[in-house]
């Protein structure tokens, strides 16, 4: 039980940090224009890669949702029950955030690069098909919620593949299909559009997360593997390549960079699940990160309109773009979004937490898009 508490606390901390990284990324994109060219100083340049938070959230989603099935022969306790829990956890806060985003877009200003949302926007976002049906968006981050919902639909099928053929075979099958789409996609117009709007690499990341959840039922010898060291070994060449090739190349190859980072995140989650490294667990278990993680879903849902308002009403035209605008916007937007998210979560998430288990999967923040 002590190990389980550490693991759960570690997941909360990761969720909170990833959500906060997305807020900073969206501030970065407004104050350092020119995406995908990185015009920031070296200490801030990494904030252009908001997509890295997407990788973390997607792997974490597959990992967390598969924990209970992994302990019980890779079986759900009922598909309909699973669907009700997911809907109860995700939809109330999402629909409330949709109403908030629409109000800001209609009454103050729409997201940058977007027309004012209309009836079609309300319909496609309300039905969670905004990644498949084009319409002006009240909150460009919402695209990932639709992808999340579609991965939920695939989750029982992936569990069936695990039971029939094994977790490794399931991941290999999904990854091969995804890689084939990634290779063919640029040469087929409609398929290329689909890859951009609904990146299929996220399915492979989700599957890798499910695979790593198997650590909870693994043998003592397998749990003793140096998972934290494996995570560093997997991440090092990816980040070295990103540093070497730069932002333009990296952001033009996010499909493959995502796939390369996935195993590193999965190994890190396996390490946390086995209680290592202890120092990192203590940091992730700190009270500020725990509290941030508990409202990280609401932080993701609501931060976009707030960042737009802060920039348009306080920073734009008053503070020089670049480092000055970035620091001022951060000083205002970060505490404002965090406080707002805590209040929002208290109203719209508390009931769902009381009625069901925590939702370990956050919507997966595509903060690396220029229009986000």
Tell me what you see in this structure:
There is one protein chain. By secondary structure, the chain is mostly helical. It has one domain. The protein contains 16 helices and no strands. The chain has helices spanning 2-31, 51-71, 79-107, 119-126, 143-165, 167-184, 189-197, 201-213, 220-223, 227-252, 254-273, 278-284, 287-294, 296-315, 323-348, 350-355. The longest helix is centred in the first third of the chain and has 30 residues, at 2-31. Residues 1-7 and 356-372 have low confidence and may be disordered.
Helix content: over 70%
Mean pLDDT: 89
Instruction: Quote the distance from N terminus to C terminus.
Output: 41 Å
Strand content: under 5%
SSE succession: HHHHHHHHHHHHHHHH
* Rg calculated over all Cα atoms: 20 Å
């Amino acid at each position: 039980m002590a190990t389980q508490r550490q693991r759960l606390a570690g997941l909360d901390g990761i969720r909170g940090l990833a959500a906060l990284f997305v807020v900073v990324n969206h501030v970065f994109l407004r104050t350092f224009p020119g995406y995908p060219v990185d015009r920031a100083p070296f200490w801030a340049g990494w904030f252009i890669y908001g997509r890295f938070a997407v990788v973390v959230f997607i792997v974490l989603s597959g990992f967390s949702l598969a924990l209970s099935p992994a302990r019980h022969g890779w079986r759900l306790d009922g598909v309909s029950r699973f669907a009700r829990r997911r809907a109860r956890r995700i939809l109330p806060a999402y629909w409330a955030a949709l109403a908030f985003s629409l109000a800001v877009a209609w009454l103050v200003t729409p997201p940058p690069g977007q027309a004012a949302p209309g009836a079609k926007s309300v319909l496609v976002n309300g039905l969670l098909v905004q990644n498949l049906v084009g319409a002006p968006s009240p909150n460009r981050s919402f695209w990932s919620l639709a992808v999340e919902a579609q991965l939920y639909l695939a989750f029982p099928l992936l569990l069936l593949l695990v039971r029939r053929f094994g977790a490794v075979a399931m991941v290999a099958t999904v990854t091969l299909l995804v890689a084939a789409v990634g290779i063919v996609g640029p040469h087929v117009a409609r398929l290329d559009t689909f890859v951009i709007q609904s990146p299929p690499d996220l399915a492979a990341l989700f599957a890798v997360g499910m695979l790593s959840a198997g650590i909870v039922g693994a043998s003592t010898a397998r749990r003793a593997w140096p998972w934290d060291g494996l995570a560093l070994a997997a991440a090092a060449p990816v980040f070295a390549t990103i540093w070497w090739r730069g932002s333009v190349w990296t952001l033009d190859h996010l499909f493959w960079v995502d796939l390369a980072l996935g195993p590193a995140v999965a190994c890190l989650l396996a390490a946390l699940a086995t209680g290592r490294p202890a120092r990192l667990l203590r940091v992730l278990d700190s009270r500020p990160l725990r509290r941030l993680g508990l409202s990280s879903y609401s932080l993701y849902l609501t931060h976009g309109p707030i960042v737009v308002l802060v920039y348009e009403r306080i920073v734009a035209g008053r503070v020089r773009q670049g480092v000055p605008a970035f620091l001022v916007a951060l000083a205002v937007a970060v505490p404002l979004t965090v406080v707002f998210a805590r209040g929002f979560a208290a109203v719209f998430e508390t009931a769902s937490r009381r009625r069901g288990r925590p939702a370990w999967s956050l919507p997966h923040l595509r903060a690396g898009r220029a229009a986000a």
